Records
---
Amino acid sequence: MKLARFLISREGFISVLCYTVTAVFSFLSFAPINLPFFVWFAPFGLFIIEKRNRGEWKKLIYHGFGFAILFYIVSFHWVYHMTTVFGGFDWYLAVPIFIVSAILLNFKFPVYLLIFSFLSIRVKRFFPLIASFAILFAEFFTPQVFPWYFGNVVAENQILAQNAEYTSAYGLSAFLFFVSYYLFYLRKPKQILRFLPFILSKHKNTTKRIVSGLALVIFILVLFFGNGYYLFQKWENVKPIAEREVLIVQPDAPLEFRDGRNPIEEIRKLMTRIDQMVERELKDNPVDLVVLPESGIPFFTTHDSEITRAMRIYWHQFESLMAIISLRHGANLYFNELDADIPGDKFSERIVRSDIRTYNSSVLMSPNGERKNSYQKVFLLIFGEYMPFEWMYALSGQTGQFAPGTKLDLIPYYETRKSTSQTTVPKDLHWEDTFVMSPNSVREHYKGNRIEEKMIGSFLPLICYEVIISEFVRKFEGDPDFIVNVTNDKWYGNSVESYQHHTLGRLRAIEFRKWIVRSTNSGTSVFTDHLGRNIDNDFTPIETTATIRKKVSVIPGEMTFYRLYGNLLSYLFMGIVGISFFVYVKRNP
């Protein structure tokens, strides 16, 4: 009742309006709508709420959760779809789960309001750097399952986005709140007119403060836009040392069969579809690398071992088809699969199911049809690939029980067979041949297609939302030719999630100055260059089969500032502002 009375009051109406301004303006600025003009006014809702409730800590916490819930409703409404479709929960359970997740995973809003209000009370005057400090602190130190930052929205501006090479999204968040707070302060014409008397004032100290403030604004604007323009020109003119032709196959694979479909029949249709899609694209036009997405062929593995056979996840026809595709077209083939092992300290002659670890894995098959290096997903998605407590698995039968991988190695790839004249095989094989031919039989059939194995490069492998966690990606060592992100957004339906997922990960291209190959199961697949530009703005459609191919440029290796030092600049900024605040408060008690 108390909440209802508040919502119908004037105060409640203004509060909800403020929540809406921040949520809607951020959404309009973000993918796939991409109207970055609105982002500069998105923080206004936060500024108004803080000003109206300055020092009222309990109210600020409640308002912070109000921002969190409305922001989730507007921008992350697809979480509800995931809860009902992926989790299988009825609406009366999905709604409270959605609200609770919105509150728990958006602590940044109440934390921001509390810090900003505390600093504003102590400083007692207009000081926009504290707005930047507060958002940096809130984004750094609050938990998020699906990390997003206001800086990702700012990065829709191609020039400003280049600053991510030094600051990642965090620095862009700080820049946004610095500029936005100035705009907020000058939102009324009367505020602007008040500057004139101050500037013309005979009080030198007042005039000095105003001039210093304006100089700081101009300096920050020139710094970010100037540096962004310089980096854009610098990297646009860099000549690639090589080009690799890459084909993405989007098979729109089924993920579950609760609707009564025959699993065997659906998987056979999927394998036929993949076989035909690849052959149609590559029959007369070979590529260096074919990329299948996460869960492109679900439930199975090509890793033939005693453990995978005991778990009944090894499927010889899966391995046979992958070998056929790579040998038939003389190309590297990168695909997703399950994998499993047993820790060395628990391995014995008798396989105990409880000792088996299962992985979300991706592996490369060479042009000679040989299974090469694999990558097991390290950064697992909570509530999707594991539960924090054992008893929680009973809540959702769709949640996986994966173990995290332990290696952060690049995936080597090999020189391909460029000409069909090199082949001596009388008959090409297809999916239907796997019913009677083992993987070894396939390799024997194509022995005339084998070429000398020569490694020509490597790429950085990322599975699903690992791509949006900048601190994690920079842990990979070595200099990759490009980044490959395989993902599966099918659980989110025909929503904006797939575009948002890509946009959050797009900054990795700028931080590393490497192209990103994004391969999805059901859309949207896309190629992104080292400037963060989506090539030809060519996205595959959602919830359909598709193929897309481009020439990926291999940019000369260079350890960028962010790869070397991570978030050093953001930490320095928070430290300097924190020390300045402490000194100011000491001098002005």
---
Amino acid sequence: MNNADQKRYDAIIVGGGLAGLTSAVFLSQAGKKILLIEKNAEFGGLVNSFERDGFVFDAGARAILGVVLAMLKDLKLDIEVVSSKVSLGVEDKIIGIEGPNSVGEYRDLLVSLYPDSVEDIDKFIEVMIRIMKLIDIIYGIDNPLFKDIKKDKAYFLKELLPWLPKFMFAMSRIERLSTPCEEDLKELIKDPSLIDIISQHFFKGTPTFFALSYFTLYSSYVYPKGGTGKLAEALVEKIQAFNGDILPNTVIKKIHADQQVIVDENNNEYHYEDLVWAADLKTFYTIVSLDNLAPKIREKFETTKALMAKGRPSESVFSLYLEVDLPVSYFKKSFNGHLFYTPSRKGLGNINKSELKGMLEKWGETDKEEVLSWLDRFLENNTYEIAIPAMRDSDLAPEGKTGLIVSLLMEAELFYKVEESGWYEEFRREIENKIISVLSESLCPELKDKVEKQFSFTPLSVENRVGSTGGAIVGWSFEAPIPVVYKMQQVNKSVLTPIPNIYQVGQWAYNPAGTPTCIITGKLAADRIIKKHK
């Protein structure tokens, strides 16, 4: 067999994150000759772990939603998972989330902080419970995607058929809750600080149903023993067991859609029958060459490309990693291994909205001291996601020590501006030290003196490593027109591109995004290809 024959595949998948891995594993399981290409040495994208000084840290997702379990079961993947309990805290008040029964505790927490807003809080809790019930319906059965409905008659008759009318009812109600969470909360709550405390750890413009469903989803979080990266490792092993080819450290620079050929940075060519694009969608629409394709396809492609160009990436994330000379028990007495924590009930107000926008617009006139003053207030009033891997798996930190991951949402544009101004590293260090100071003064008094090492990933780190425009971790911003499918009833169409044998999957293919979206779109694309060639 010559080299050209060796590089011909039934399907090529570009992007080795969770979506690409999902497509690759199901295509290879079906007997397709596939090639999975990834720009980095490691696979997993934002579902990845790394080891440093005896600590294991998660590079992206801090836990995984239970929807993953259906895929693990279907593929017979041998991954041990443990429950990932979530806590929620404001100032010195912290509660553990144990499912729907914790709603009352959450209500009491809010009332203790905002005693003048009891009536508003009760109205909000009422809406939240209603959304939780709808989400319970949507996730009420095992996902049909991972079931052989033709063979599993009991599932079809006893679960799927009775569930479908309930699902359609729930979806019709959810459609009415697609407005931005902040707008709906303003209809229920007068105190702007209370609105912030409820909503500020979500992406700007997050739809109400998505934001307020999280209280339900928190209780379904699981954590793979050994770190979230164990999921990616298991999928890679399964792809290889199904005789799929994998190619790390390879960047695709051109797609010749009419010839069904992709070209890497070293000018190697790979021929495909079907292509699954599981990487940055803006990059895809930049590197495709249409040449001799039909005029209707080219016209539709150019229209879609223009929509993609107008779409904006969502906020990115700043993650601080701490190696701390304190035992896990020090933290465990106060909260669970996955904590959403706000050090001040004041809330961000306009700090992360009009103030940030104004500062970025007049950047040339803004001096460093003004930026640092803004940064102090931004970090003092923000909400942090704090993960402690060793609290879920004691093997992930040296004995007597703890590894912490502290994250918060931040705009990539701010980091672009700072880098252009020549003080990126100083800015990064300022954020690191300020976060440590804020948490020491509010949550963990001993933290400041017990940090042995610290390092961080910025939005630019995410962009460079994952190749995601703007370092976005969930695809498109809700604040700009979304150029992809964003209605759950249409998710099956989200994988289609204007080119019939090219599919798009992952965080850019459907909004709102996340690990379930990556898995679902990855599986949908694989199913379409398998069905097409049967």
---
Amino acid sequence: MSFNIALSGVSAAQKDLDVTANNIANVNTVGFKESRAEFGDVYAASLLAGGKTKVGDGVLTQEVAQQFSQGSLQFTNTALDLAITGNGFFATVPEITSRDFSFTRAGQFKLDSDNFVVNSNGDNLLGFPVNSDGTSASVALSTTVPVRVPDSSGSPQQTSEVDIRMNLPAGDQGKDPAAFDPDDPLTYNAATSVTVYDSLGDSHIMTYYFVKDNSATVDNEWYVATAIDDQLVDMVNSDGTDSDPTTATHSMGTNTGNGVSAAKLQFSQGGDFIGIESPDGVSTTDFKITTEALGQNILANGSDPAQQISVDFNLEPNGATPNEPTQFASAFEVTSLEQDGLPVGRLTGIDIGPDGLVRATFSNGTSEPIVRVALVRFSNEQGLTQESSTQWKESILSGEALAGEATTGTFGEINSSALEQANVNLTTELIDMIIAQRNFQANSRALEVNNQLNQTILNIR
């Protein structure tokens, strides 16, 4: 019997060495969780045996239990490197249409040839579909979809409004608005341009021409006219109807063949902006001026011909503000010129937030939520069935997989450009290896002593 007891000790010591060696071997494996050999003594007795004199029957390996403690983070320069701090696993499937879920803490992800996010085994990372505002459409594991980075472009947006802030020089001499010629800088006081966009994302140059009114009875008033791609564009009247330069109250270039309806900017004697008049001479109520529909003559690329562009001068009727145009005794200066249109955008980057939301950013300044990386947790992590490549499968002991969003409930946080290192403490493992070696040697010595005793008995004559 003592032979069997010693052999069980040798076997247990060998198992302990195996577990320790496996931990040491995977010290650089991303997402690896160390294991611990757990032993129990063996004791067998019959009804007639003397309990006070019974000796145990050795040792038995009860379980090799994985330890799901947090590993330290290693930061990288790759946005698709993901690490979980806290509770949860990434969910993956071997094929796009498969529902054979595997779970991992190893976040070394990359793009395949079809722009799907996969790990080193080619398994697809799963996420929750999202709405346009970035909220999850569903958080059930059954509704997860493979995460895919779009190869499409960012949608363009046509310009509908231009915001301008400037100073018009109070000391400039007035000019005859009827003599305006956009090709002759001597016929206008100042001009500035901004790039605007049509509904297809094509760019156009919108120019504003300013002419100080030279009428003897009028002071501190300026005409403003617009052109797009060097074609003059009429303004609409105060009631939104199209205007006619030949009959409009305010117009420019009628004597040079460059007739265009204009708006009028009015300033106080202190240089404050106080009002805008439409081409029909009526003050605007929204303090903006708007072009007529640009039409196919200007937008000849098939974009929306009904596009109109408003100009907002930020007039505050209750008093002067820094956002309004001014007429001071200084040079013409544009302090702000912004528009709300967007060109077609190229994909420039992927951002993954702590809540797992994957957002694509485009060169036109827009961003778009794509999907939210799903996290999965279990009531008993140690009950998971271990597989190769630091992956686990659901089992009866682990309980059912529960999916959810990162940073909610008991789920941890997702860190982009980071990897979770193995939770192996190399110093501890080396000490454990020395202890296992000592136990192995001691049990081997017990076998040797048993063998000597047997030989002594066999040699009795």
